[in-house]
Design goal:
The structure is a single chain. Among the domains are: 3-175 and 476-488, Uridine Diphospho-n-acetylenolpyruvylglucosamine Reductase, domain 3, CATH 3.30.465; 178-275, Alpha-Beta Plaits. It has 19 helices and 17 strands. The chain has helices spanning 3-20, 80-87, 105-111, 118-121, 149-154, 189-201, 230-235, 249-259, 271-275, 292-303, 316-322, 330-336, 342-351, 353-357, 372-382, 431-444, 459-465, 468-477, 487-491, and strands spanning 32-34, 53-55, 62-66, 71-74, 92-94, 128-134, 140-143, 164-174, 178-186, 208-215, 218-225, 237-238, 264-270, 361-368, 388-394, 415-423, 448-449. The strands form 3 sheets. The chain has a 9-stranded mixed sheet, with helices on both faces. Strands 3, 4, 5, 6, 7 and 8 form a 6-stranded antiparallel sheet that branches. Helix 6 runs antiparallel to helix 15 (372-382). The protein is globular.
């Protein structure tokens, strides 16, 4: 059998499985998807307990690369690494490629994933041309901008609550051998955000754009282009992550920032190195494991449950001890390199999930660009966490009711800026309280958060932000009621 015949057989088995579970009235709970490996979500999975499981692990094949139409058709469990390696032989790449090798196509669509090309394209779902979705009655529904349009747009950020994705058609663009980078260093993060905003309005926007706030006096903005200028082609040195001795990308950027004040630094990276530059070390989260006192608490308290503290957050003395990231030494990076990619770090996190979530902030907040400086000042003054990832995202004007880059009609902003907060905040307060404060600020600024992480909205607060009526209408179309969990079951912590 060819790939398409095998795919049809797999989907048919899933359809029959749903029908064999009986009607919603006959089951005690909704169905949960099952697959091997670890999810890139960091919120609770309690909703999956005692549920019938539908195994989607086999839906992991690249079905077709069409170089003439410049599309890839893939199953949902295909990872970003596998997708890139399937398209590169055709000199093609996805227009957006999330930064971690193990993120799956289905996860990127259902979670509204973005990356440094998002200022041009939006989120990953915005480069998809169509989906095949398994509905709650076992039927298949094709969704595109021309068929079942509301479902097509509503799927983004819905986390499988409308239906289960069985294939996606993804838009591709022409590849080049390298990404050519320009690093701009700022002593004021607000000026760095201002430069990003200027680039967003320029007719010559770079192909890639993101930044890192390392401290109140050090921010680096990175422009990347597939087509170099003559100067960049001749003068750019190559930075590679292939060597076991190489610095993690954030370390490399910080070094450039401290040594290139007032100058623009040029270099190049291979496509694979660039796209997955944050995978090694999980941005910078893996660096916490190089602090022996932190590691000791993580293992004894988090994994094994020994000597549990009274408070469900770090004490003031622990906060001042742990909040600053200790730069991993070259020897440690080399020895532990196989264990410190994002997938392995997520596996480690999930072994002590409750402990980590009560001590660290892992959140992404999308703020309308006109309010970005206000939000930046707020987090730097009230909730300092360093580093902070900055990633501009083109807004969507389509009814993507749960997408993080969807703005209400009264907003004039054409872009949002995503603030990635990953680390230990310099405040000895429950993470629940700090996250709640951030959620309220984001809502006040007209932004949204990415729902892969813990959310502390009440049901009433959640449905004030997201349109419940529209959502219920979509669930009726896909026969989701009683079969697929509601989004609030999945994304709300309480």
């Amino acid at each position: 059998m060819n790939k398409w015949e095998v795919h049809s057989k797999k989907v048919e088995r899933l359809q029959n499985s749903i029908k064999s579970y009986g009607s919603a009235k006959e089951r005690s709970s909704a169905i949960a998807l099952h697959y091997s490996g670890y999810s890139n979500t960091t919120r609770t999975k309690r909703y999956k307990q005692n549920c019938p499981r539908l195994d989607f692990g086999s839906l992991n094949e690249v079905l077709q690369i069409d170089p003439e139409k410049m599309i890839a058709i893939v199953e949902p469990r295909v990872t970003m690494e596998r997708l890139l390696r399937a398209t590169l032989p055709f000199q093609l790449i996805p227009a957006i490629l999330p930064e971690c090798r193990g993120i799956t196509v289905g996860g990127a669509i259902m979670g509204g994933a973005g990356e440094s090309s998002s200022h041009q394209w939006g989120c990953f779902n915005d480069i998809c041309r169509s989906y095949q979705i398994l509905c709650g009655d076992g039927s298949l529904l094709r969704a595109s901008p021309y068929e079942n349009r509301d479902i097509f747009y509503g799927v983004a950020g819905s986390y499988g609550s409308l239906g289960a994705l069985v294939s996606a058609e993804i838009e591709l663009i022409a590849a080049q051998k390298f990404v050519y980078l320009r690093y701009h260093v700022f002593s004021d993060p607000l000026k760095a955000i201002g430069m990003m905003q200027s680039l967003l309005k320029s007719h010559e926007r770079p192909d890639f754009l993101d930044g890192i706030i390392f401290a109140k006096d050090l921010t680096v903005v990175m422009e990347g282009n597939l087509h170099p200028t003559n100067h960049e082609s001749n003068q750019s040195s190559l930075f590679s992550l292939a060597s076991p001795l190489s610095e993690w990308f954030y370390q490399h950027v910080k070094k450039i920032g401290t040594e290139s004040q007032g100058q623009i630094y040029h270099e190049k990276m291979t496509l694979e190195d660039y796209f997955f530059r944050y995978d090694l070390g999980g941005f910078w989260m893996g660096a916490y494991l190089f602090q022996i006192p932190f590691l000791a608490r993580f293992v004894t308290q988090g994994i094994f449950g020994f000597r549990k503290p009274i408070e469900e957050h770090f004490s003031e003395s622990e906060i001042y001890r742990f909040h600053s990231i200790k730069e991993p030494h070259v020897v440690g990076r080399a020895i532990f390199r196989p264990f410190l990619n994002t997938q392995n770090l997520l596996a480690i996190l999930h072994k002590a999930e409750h402990w980590v979530q009560n001590r660290m902030v892992i959140q992404d907040f999308c703020i309308p660009e006109s309010k970005a400086k206000h939000f930046c000042k707020e987090i730097l003054n009230n909730l300092p966490i360093f580093p902070v990832w900055l990633c501009p995202i083109k807004r969507t004007y389509h009814p993507q009711i749960f997408a993080p880059h969807f703005l209400s009609e009264n907003h004039v902003d054409g872009h949002l800026i995503n603030f990635g907060l990953y680390g230990i905040p310099l405040q000895s307060k429950p993470i629940r309280c700090l996250t709640k404060m951030l959620e309220q600020s984001v809502h006040a600024y007209g932004g949204r958060k990415a729902l892969y992480s813990r959310s502390y909205y009440t049901l009433e607060e959640f449905w004030q932000i997201y349109p419940r009526g529209s959502y219920e209408d979509l669930r009726k179309i896909t026969h989701a009621h009683g079969v697929w969990h509601e989004i609030t079951d999945k994304v709300l912590s309480e």
